Amino acid sequence: RPARFTLDPAFTVGEAGPRLFGAFVEHLGRCVYTGIHEPDHPAADEAGLRTDVLALIRELGVTTIRYPGGNFVSGYKWEDSVGPVERRPRRLDLAWRSTETNRFGLSEYLAFLKKLGPQAEPMMALNLGTRGVAEALELQEYANHPAGTELSERRIAHGDKDPYGIRLWCLGNELDGPWQTGHKTAGEYARLAAETARAMRQADPSVELVACGSSSRSMPTFAEWEATVLAETYDLVDHISLHAYYEELDGDRDSFLASAVDMESFIEDTVATCDHIGARLKSKKRITLSFDEWNVWYMSRAQREAATADPADWPEAPRLLEDNYSVTDAVVLGSLLIALLRHADRVAVACLAQLVNVIAPILTEPGGPAWRQTTFHPFAQTSRYGRGQVLDVRVDSPTYATAKYGEVPLLHATAVRDPESGAVTVFAVNRSQDAALPLEVALHGLEVTQVAGHSALADADPEARNTLAAPERVVPHEVSGTTLQGGTLRATLEPLSWNVIRLA
Ligand code: AHR
């Protein structure tokens, strides 16, 4: 039987704004060095930024860019990353057992965003691992104070006359995780986050602050951590963070394809925890979510590799976490985007982790080309067509059995209406590995009259990937036979496919 749902603009979830299409640049492996920044590359501009990579990032449609970590930020000394490059110190990066040269720093990050264009917004993470309130205030002053104080004048002397105007700040990173430098208990972190937030607001009441939530839903402290942190910071912060990574384990592809079930539950559980604290405080304020790290990541492989690394070796910009994504990974990534859109009422910020080389939609070779991974396509299409009013989609779909999540609908879908043109885009994943899925969508009260396009990402080989040798092996293709007649959209979704159906 077909999978079905109804679309009606009277029933919406919320607004999908640009910040849902953020990404993450960490000083990790080759994300920055030889990813974004490679002064010797033939395509480098005067600032050492790779123009081929800049063009791909623009095409990807990335908006907010979180920086500089990640685990890296918990040992970060912002002062090392400013001023004349030749005087910047080399430091040990404990998080990734690397040597950080600081050739790319704060000023370079802001210049990189400027080159990307006005849609690129900074999201600066603070070190609350080894540092605290004083250093956060100093960085805020260096970055945002116009002039006339020691720190703002230092920025000006370093060549940046205009303040950076960084509005969005993360109060640390994954401090619930024992792997984090400066790991804390929920109570310790809550106190530090509250003190830092209060002080930063004294300097500038308009800052937007993200408190650290759990580094995954499977953390033993999940929900209790959020409750403890928010009980102390509720009135001082705007968002709480979520991080989630998914991978296929033990050949269980059916469960992997249903990863968004976990992501949606994570979002719903976090919302419930936030609102529980809001209720306890009798507050009208609603905390929103910053899903500031999400992706497919073959983390178990990375852990195996790290376990065999030479402990005496502190390489510069090593090849770390350079996952090469398959068609299956791209379908899952599309489904994770659907999960975010389906919760656009509470997810205010989302950052794909990461942007270049490190678990990224873009790969590069030092001195060589840059190319799009399979996962590039669902992200770029959703950023392009997925902004506007998210319509409430209640799916009636055949199901399949998964080991991890029980019976799961074969169809995962959402739809977004552009309020200006009235155009509607349906984003849909068929989780079946072997059968096509007929889809019927009843349209009520929408202005659309025709199918403007149906693009699919699917392949006879679900393991197909884009590589240096074959960078365009996997690209989306147009699907014929999709119709809109008598108020019903009919389509066939190929097995294991990501679909974008545009109605105009
Ligand atoms: O994105 C890679 C790492 O994943 C980040 O540094 C950390 O925050 C998370 O555990």
UniProtKB/TrEMBL annotation:
It comes from the Bacteria. Its EC number is 3.2.1.55. Residues 292-497 form the Alpha-L-arabinofuranosidase C-terminal domain. It catalyses: Hydrolysis of terminal non-reducing alpha-L-arabinofuranoside residues in alpha-L-arabinosides. It holds the Pfam family Alpha-L-AF_C. Signal peptide: none annotated. Keywords: Carbohydrate metabolism, Glycosidase, Hydrolase. InterPro entries: Alpha-L-AF_C (IPR010720), ASD1_cat (IPR055235), GH (IPR017853), Glyco_hydro_b (IPR013780). Belongs to the glycosyl hydrolase 51 family. Homohexamer; trimer of dimers. This is non-reducing end alpha-L-arabinofuranosidase. It comes from Streptomyces ochraceiscleroticus.
